[in-house]
Fold each of these.
Amino acid sequence: MITITDPRIESYILGLAPEENPILDAMEERARETGVPIIDRQVGRLLHLLTRMKKPDLVVELGSGFGYSSYWFARALGNQGRVVLTDFSERHINYARKTFNEAGLSERAEFRVGDALRIGAEYDNVDVLFIDVDKYMYPEAISVMLPKLADNALVIADNALWHGTVVEEDPQYENSGAIRQFNEFMFSRRDFFTTIVPLRDGVLLAYKLS
Amino acid sequence: MITITDPRIESYILGLAPEENPILDAMEERARETGVPIIDRQVGRLLHLLTRMKKPDLVVELGSGFGYSSYWFARALGNQGRVVLTDFSERHINYARKTFNEAGLSERAEFRVGDALRIGAEYDNVDVLFIDVDKYMYPEAISVMLPKLADNALVIADNALWHGTVVEEDPQYENSGAIRQFNEFMFSRRDFFTTIVPLRDGVLLAYKLS
């Protein structure tokens, strides 16, 4: 495992935007208690900014957990936009639904329990695709969703550096091969412009050129 | 000075996009020879992706050096867009002009020699503002340019982490106070959504909310 970004830098950036928000606090507390992985506020802010810029009608998340990233997307959407949450766990999705109700964001969301890839494939003209399923599924996830993307879609994948194991194997983290394969696939596509931002655990951004 | 991102991670990301491009090579060689600071390819790719997403009509650069960042912007612009280059050095701007001619991008650029802030203030409806002047000038630069920004403008500032001196002073790098002041100003504005990406020396992104 590699420390991707110096922790003092991470603290500095987080300290610049000290948002007091009981909903974020509660979800972060739940993540600590349950061990369910979430993106952090830094990544959340990047998703938020990109969503504001992109003004998508349809965001599809593959692997929403209990809705932390979904909340960052939903807050950034205009009234025309919606985010589709997917997770295997009914408990996670129920928690997300409750949270979105409290936040007054339910009308911007669809809550779906089941196989993320199968559900994702039901949608067309996806403007923003967020990939955060189990890491071994990344190559299959993009392959299923490629035909479902709108023109100029933005693909965002969390954990694109997978704790640094893309450059140095660590028995604690499996599936670095799948992540490497996914990254290489995205960078090799001439119909996408792709980059990775070393924020937290790495965020891959791929913009569809037509 | 703090190593912001692990160098193995930086190499991995750069290695995923091995663009063979004699123009970039020549500019990077010139940067090494002359010691003129440039953004690197990682930051270049982020600027490129954001510009593709934003589709700006007008990009204004405060502090273009010999045009490395300008080249990344210009390639990402559509036919309707242009980038204004500013630098004190006539030699830098002449080199940029020559490079843009070779690249067939001259029609997307304006080449201006002189005081970046004074020149920048001549423009209105700036869609993307790129700040890369001397670091002590950052607070003044944004204050001069705020009224010149278009709705939903994107402000991008390089060196927002200033070699880590925003968290740990280093006598080798002056002006960490000015950078901190600039960052705090941008994050405090309610009319912008701001974040910092720890890419290379830190890239501040601020999206104007109206």
Amino acid sequence: MSEQQLNYLKENRSKNLAALYDFLKIPSVSTDSTFKKDVRNAGQFVYDYLNEIGFSNLEMIETDGHPIIYGEYMGAGKDAPTVLLYGHYDVQPADPYEEWISEPFLPEERNGRIYARGASDDKGQVFMHLAVFEAFMKTEGKLPLNVKVCIEGEEEIGSENLHNYLNAYPEKFAADFTVISDSGMIAENQPTILYGLKGFTGIEIEVTGPSYDLHSGIYGGAVKNPAMALAQLLATMKNKDEQITVSGFYDGVEDLTKEERELIKNVQGENYLETTGAIQTISEKGYSAKEHTMARPTFEINGIYGGYQGEGTKTIIPTSATAKITCRIVPNQDPERIQDLLETHIEKYKPAGVKVKVKKEKLSAKAYKVEPTDPLIVKAAESYERAFKKEAVFVRMGGSIPVVEWLDNLYEHPVVLLGFGTPDDRLHSPNESFPLNSFDLGMETIVYYWNTFKKE
Amino acid sequence: MSEQQLNYLKENRSKNLAALYDFLKIPSVSTDSTFKKDVRNAGQFVYDYLNEIGFSNLEMIETDGHPIIYGEYMGAGKDAPTVLLYGHYDVQPADPYEEWISEPFLPEERNGRIYARGASDDKGQVFMHLAVFEAFMKTEGKLPLNVKVCIEGEEEIGSENLHNYLNAYPEKFAADFTVISDSGMIAENQPTILYGLKGFTGIEIEVTGPSYDLHSGIYGGAVKNPAMALAQLLATMKNKDEQITVSGFYDGVEDLTKEERELIKNVQGENYLETTGAIQTISEKGYSAKEHTMARPTFEINGIYGGYQGEGTKTIIPTSATAKITCRIVPNQDPERIQDLLETHIEKYKPAGVKVKVKKEKLSAKAYKVEPTDPLIVKAAESYERAFKKEAVFVRMGGSIPVVEWLDNLYEHPVVLLGFGTPDDRLHSPNESFPLNSFDLGMETIVYYWNTFKKE
């Protein structure tokens, strides 16, 4: 019974790709205020699309930052379930620009992939849903279930304004379940049900010493070097076994069960060395790289800086040095508590002679887990398998989607992660891309999935 | 017998200051190729000045980098001594520009100081010598001794080309002694004889992990974080007692004698907390801050960088992280050996899972010491005292002037460091300045000094 929609998508493939490219061309980098207007324009794209295909009660919800796009379709009637579709139209910064083979905001097709910032995360996947809605409206004039659409513009910067709005107006987005396509499959063409996601929290450590950059000859030996102080402090936070040595960090973290280890082992994961170019995998003692990335908490320095970075030499003692850190956390770890533990550790271990300021990342999220046997999850797996002609695997993953945890907490309803990215997509990196194969079979999966809600 | 010159300088003070300002206005940043032409223009300024006051055999010596300005005055005759005057017309980068109160290359007088990049290091002090030469030529038509002038444009980037030229044409600059004004006094108005300088060497450590920035959720736990690897590595190089923990680093370093400790103690040094804004002085265990800066070797991180530095958060594992390091060394430490020791240490302690590349700073220098009782030094002290009306102090200092060591090795003649900077000059930092008082009394000192070579 999905023939009509699939035919419509086939016939309109060129038109759809052209529209997606228009969407990708908008540099909607939410973290950089230079792109404020572009971010809004990307939101407007979603708004206009929903409007054109007949969604109602459209709103561009203004926030203190970038707007949230809302729209709904209630034509399936009171007895039909209502799904909340969440996604985001903002993207990560594209720098370093010089490492892109083609322009980040000028989509290009190469090797069966669409290359552009946001192709996979998350504009490409948001667009697939829009196109599938259109296919239903243009063929049957209706959808098999009621839909509330919430596409935000601040996912890459922590979704703070959506978080506030959700808490202020919970009724607005109330639904029976949520669907999100903002994740990936463990391999190209391998249907993947994500039944667990890590949570997320972060801090910034700023070490300040002298009030200006000092001449290292005149003052070397009189004051503490802030870059060295930072290095010494960071080195107290993780040991050689890649264990996080912050007191209390692992409190409540449950060890992997034999069954989970078996499940992870059987997942045909990616070849980390090949994908990343690292010379060796490095993971927590007692856990494989796959186990650590999928199910154990992490502590990563995302950026470090201080002093002279230019050409040649500048013989100074820098006035300050900074490290940006994020942790991915697992069930039973509370993000605010983790921030407190980090702060306590830093206070205890900070070297003498410098000031250390800890800035806590405002937005964070607990980890998320859903029952793999939930009928909504089972239906999703079946739809996947029908489109990709391959059995779905069930995995936990290291990524975090804070909104998943919020919706889970707020509505206590299942969140279905219907992701179509692949390990080679280079999310957040230069040369992000998305396979055309995922584009086509992903839409097919979504068509099948919505049709499972059709009343016969 | 110096009256004539001092009167001339007094009468021409405004003209001299205006000319100095013209010199300071040229952004001769040698490390940044953007300023290549400006660097040359600053050299041309020196050339033109020497030409105008009657120096001969002028040359703008071309090198692989910036030119060396040469000129001589041989009018004092064969029996008179010949001095080599060394200085540099290049300056440190001015960044961060936004921290300057007035423009770095638009000199401004405030609080009795000239504010501009290079005001103290070294254009201001080079100019004083030019003005004094002029004063002699315009009043007596001659100088009391023969002079060879060597003003280079690459001091701030290691003087590599001067080094090569010196070794290729040692005769060119041969003289009975050298005078350099590129250093400071321990306090404003405190005549200071520097009888020892530290040497200098450096390395850059680049830690590389994945071949591109990775998503920290997907890959955190599978590969080593290069920024953490760098922090862990740096932390093995210095301990909590500020001792450098690189095997062999202190080999041959002589401990301070009781007399030297006494001498350093009696030097009325600067108030480090006041000058630097640090909350506490930190120095090697067993040595005061003054002792460490003046006479003990140092290891400083001049800059550290890797990963995301922008606004907000970017959840990546950076592809690489880099630290720029320089060491100031003391007598009996060989710079190349120190580089080798650092490299050996890094090879031994580098964390698993990353590649580490050590780039050795090409140019370096041994430490320098001169006998405080040498007649040329005694004369300098007397001239200082006469101008500043205060007894001179004798100190060793933490700065390095590689060319001092080269000239010392090459010519085996005394190098007299006649510096007029002060601790508040903020060399290499935003808001560099030079006291007008040093400008006036410094020129007076130089006049007295040259006149000690006058045959009565």
Amino acid sequence: MSITGDQSFLKQINRMALVRVIQQAPALSRADLAKETGLTKSTVSLLVQELIDEGWFVERKAQVTGALGRRPTPLYIDSQRLALIGADLGVESISVVAVSLTGNVLDAVTEPLPSPDQAVVIHRLAKLIAACAERLKHAGRTLLGIGLGVPGPVNEQAGTLKYAPNLGWSKVQIVARLGSALKAAGVSSPRIFMQNEADVAALGEFEFGERPIPEPLVYLSLGVGVGAGIVANDRLFSGVDGSAGDFGHSILQVDGPECYCGRRGCAETFIGLRAIGTQIAAWGEKALSTAALAELAARGDARMREVLTHAGRYLGVLAHNIWTAFKPGRIVFGGPACELGPYFFDTAAACMQRYAESSGLPAPELKQAHYGSLAVAVGAAALVLHKLIRPLELKACA
Amino acid sequence: MSITGDQSFLKQINRMALVRVIQQAPALSRADLAKETGLTKSTVSLLVQELIDEGWFVERKAQVTGALGRRPTPLYIDSQRLALIGADLGVESISVVAVSLTGNVLDAVTEPLPSPDQAVVIHRLAKLIAACAERLKHAGRTLLGIGLGVPGPVNEQAGTLKYAPNLGWSKVQIVARLGSALKAAGVSSPRIFMQNEADVAALGEFEFGERPIPEPLVYLSLGVGVGAGIVANDRLFSGVDGSAGDFGHSILQVDGPECYCGRRGCAETFIGLRAIGTQIAAWGEKALSTAALAELAARGDARMREVLTHAGRYLGVLAHNIWTAFKPGRIVFGGPACELGPYFFDTAAACMQRYAESSGLPAPELKQAHYGSLAVAVGAAALVLHKLIRPLELKACA
């Protein structure tokens, strides 16, 4: 409903269409872009020059091919001049990263959550972001915007975190408050975008992951809780209330183990870190890190192998159910449970593979998060890029 | 990538934007439309007049309110002058319907599948469609296009049915062949659109269902097989291979009953009509219609009540899992199992409700298919409308 014939807006749509084409198919020339987009060659030349001037595109030397005539100049996304900042407001820690348009991590800082107090956390985040922005400035980079990943569903339009049970927060006007804090810290008001942690991590994989990026793409965040970010039809899939992909509470066994949510047989009761920890605690084992669990299994601890294999099998069933529901081309496993190692993941992959073979259909790619523990922070930076290069949606949301 | 500055295309986008606004909010005036779309009042007036002339819009008398000045004229989608044809190529029967832009069924014919032979079926479909088109013509209606729902995943661009196991068909160029047959039958080549049966049924609910239409919307087709059509972000959600929503083979019980697909514990082994029929056959009962099963349960047959309640409970679990995955605002139950009655459906709804209460979140609306056994045929007609009023996507697919 927002195509108004406004010329500058149409121009921005066309500019960003060019960015998206080059992002997906680097090394195309201006002539290729004209063919790809249906824009005239002169319009493409004009827009490409602007994008080069502003730091979006860079030209590289054409490869000498032996063919006659002037070689078309290949265009690439410029990784050198612009930057995006992403912040991960986690339950236990906060991270701030700067990344290039191509997903190179330029700067990263992680520290423990300073306090459960909202004001303290927002103030600290603003400080870290301001320092990061300052370093970018010294490096001669232009900041395009700031993204934030939070541990709960959000109201994107209002810039509020609806609730974050693990922080004990609800209805927090984070975007406005962070904006004020950044202004106070001397960061001239750039755009701020916010989304749920699994959603931004999914966008991180979608914008910066291994190409070609298949769709739908599901990022499954495995930790104490189990949730997912889903990208489909080029957009985040978030459901009626922003909480689609709540796979931790899909039921894998009717009348199964009791879940803290009141239901029984939820996926989290089989594969959540708390559930795994409870099993181990029942042996009288002290609390161990995920890496330590994997280490024990690797060293031959039979009980640990059994626990991780059992959990891994249910992860395979969950991944299979995600597959039947969304038919993703790729499922990415992320989150702290990624350290549980092969008894967990290889079991899941083998289970998924068996199901796929039964059905005669190719299984989706299974991958581990490209940015590891920085997945949410980098994803938050990707959110900024994702929004900027889709101006139609930006306008629709305004 | 398809916004080219082409003026006639932009005009068509704007025209169809107006149609979609009036579809969602009937009785708006030209001034309201201008406000809603950002178009100028003079552009709106021009486009509205065209849409009235062509049969999309109708003006009705403004209600006298007592306020001074000229009253703005409310606009409505015209149900009288245009028509859409939808065809359901089912495993056991074929149906052809004509519907108005507002979803009124103007004409409907259903007959048994004439043969498993492709040529025979396509020829018969063309005959039925041609006869329907002829009747529309006599009634003075203009046909906008023809939609087709088929029992298997499709390649929409190529107009092919990939495979339909229950027909024993694979890689059938249905759209091209139906187009030729229609031409031979004297139907001047209108657009033909094709999609999977559950997908078109979902679009039927999305375009013609009870307003407001929440998103995502899931149409769960319950029969021998269990599949779904999903509408999200205003589009059909179909996954990497067109077969998203294959919920019949999501696993509800690890190591559960064997499924014909080779997996175990698939949803179909609990709620598919074949699975229910097998249980009943085990009592030595002869094959009964779904309506007869419901009748027996209603008359007090304890075993039948137990069978239907057990299946209904698993339907509730499946609906819950669909809810956690997609967070739909509405789940519609359709297909022949709809005749199984309250022991099946009320149990499912109660199960779903209990889960929602446990989680503290509102459950999605549960509804039965608005068009009953014509859901797929009417949905196929809705597919035509859905495509026509989204020209951006039409062009992107061309």
Amino acid sequence: MEKVAVIGIGLTKFGELWESSFSQLFVEAGTKAIEDAGIDGKDIDAIFVGNMSGGRFIEQEHISSLIADYAGLTPLPSTRVEAACASGGLAIRHGIMGILSGFYDIVVVGGVEKMTDVLTERTTQILATAAEQEWEANLGMTFPGLYAMMARRHMHKYGTTREQLAMVSVKNHRNAVHNPYAQFRFEISVDKVLNSPMVADPLRLLDCSPISDGAACIILASKEKAKEFVDNPIYIIGSGQASSSISLHGREKLTVMDSTVNAAREAYKRAKIEPKQIKVAEVHDCFTIAEILAIEGLGFFKVGEGGKATEEGETEIGGKVSVNTSGGLKAKGHPVGATGVAQAVEITLQLRGEAEKRQVDADFGLSHNVGGSGGTAVVHIFSK
Amino acid sequence: MEKVAVIGIGLTKFGELWESSFSQLFVEAGTKAIEDAGIDGKDIDAIFVGNMSGGRFIEQEHISSLIADYAGLTPLPSTRVEAACASGGLAIRHGIMGILSGFYDIVVVGGVEKMTDVLTERTTQILATAAEQEWEANLGMTFPGLYAMMARRHMHKYGTTREQLAMVSVKNHRNAVHNPYAQFRFEISVDKVLNSPMVADPLRLLDCSPISDGAACIILASKEKAKEFVDNPIYIIGSGQASSSISLHGREKLTVMDSTVNAAREAYKRAKIEPKQIKVAEVHDCFTIAEILAIEGLGFFKVGEGGKATEEGETEIGGKVSVNTSGGLKAKGHPVGATGVAQAVEITLQLRGEAEKRQVDADFGLSHNVGGSGGTAVVHIFSK
């Protein structure tokens, strides 16, 4: 594919942001991204926004119009895309298509979710709408339960240990300490994970990403247009998207997330690079097991060896591939619609050399965003 | 823009389809479209689906994955787009971009909504999520109320009469008699409209489109690929999309829907044709006043003259421009996410010469889909 440039990035802090409304969050992230790019509203051709469930979290559908309105960007075309927690990644892909189709030169791609304005029990119910109602959610399955089954099977089949799962969380918390936008900027220990309250055996509280509010935004431009505005564009050189059975029972294996494998294959092919060339990656660690499945599915490690690689420090900053330098969903926070776009923000910072104490030496970076238990996966590959 | 071909179409009946699930509806429409195009699943590259509120109507988000799964089309990329009642039109636009970006050759574009599985009061609440919660819905505004204000202002400013509004409904019911997929296949009279129960003054029950279940699907292909499969492709030669203030109070005028005007301008420009060349149009008549605003905003008639044009029969089948030959939202039914795609199905039938007793002589057709009270509008222009 022809490459597309990231010319601006913006983030809000992630966390329990009771003082900010949904509209304020995306306007904050969007304004930062527009300022970062040094563009004006009149330079923008369209808006894409990833949002999982405005309809249920804040009783507001049609947020494409709301966003254009509050950002002062009407009458620009504004589109919401949704694939549960992969909504942000999907918004990026469709922003790219908007540019490569010739319809647009510069687009704003945002992701936003306001999750803490409802009670926690209700949040769990809302998140369960990303699983199949008929065969999973209505029978009482929630996401910790679904990922717990994947974890249990991975442990059984490959000898992945409970401690290795915990090490994912420990690493991501350690990285988040240096990320000013992260929800949890403190270190934890393996012991602390193993002694945290049980959520769905074998997953404990500190294996699970939190409920968060937040927004993220990037400005995409055609490679010709990018040069008019910035000296340091980062390019998206590959994009992949795949679907899978929405329910776990429809998958061939619990230990391989085939949507990740298929999306990664497309992205590597479009980018014309190999997994081993990726030195920094933001992957979808909604639960610790999810990061293990991700680093295997993306081809960084062989299937079954993700736990061992984590234990051996290969995913630490400066390891074979630095994974979730931002703190990941676990420690940076997981406002579901924003996550995929926030991943792109971190990779852009890394490739610009602006990641400060989290900085990695990399020519290529990757973002990996999952919807539900793997019904959707989106992968993007970035280069300097 | 480069033209894109419609090579297959499929519809379910619209109505209260209690015997069909959400999944069954889109599989039925999709299967018909795939058969109509004479393609196989393996020819398809991606799925786009318009759906307004699966999250609230059937407690299911992530329907992109559900649809790929139930249609047997995993691991294809599958994307839901949403802009309230304009979701279907938006799905078409993004399917076009997917093709013109070079990512895909053939895509399935569907729209689906299952609205009758919740109580009617709840449906009204859910539909109100397309309006701004903070300034409209939370204060008790519902859609009949919003459109009633537009109607009242149009009547005051231009002398549009209560009877003229009724004539929109009478015409659309007359057209629906000949549409086997329509929800209401019976004629009504102006008297009957004027004596139907008041909903929001001046709009009465028979000014309002119904609550419906249904799905629609079209298959889009690049113009090169289309020729491999069909002899009679219909082309989409123009696409326009615009946003506006989500709330009525943010608009300059109540009597001109600026999103329609802006989306139409883009579509005509891309298609390189004039409004007067359009001989058949499906427009967004969620309420009778909406059709008047549409035919003015699309440039078929001068602002303020839509009511008179309707009274004089200029929008009847065979008139200056045949509007809503399918029966429109009013009589064909309005499963919100499906509507924009169903409009494309009708225009394709017309340009193929397959509209039977509704047939119009036309070289160009147009579809016009609105989200909310006009926060989003999408326009597509079709040619033989």
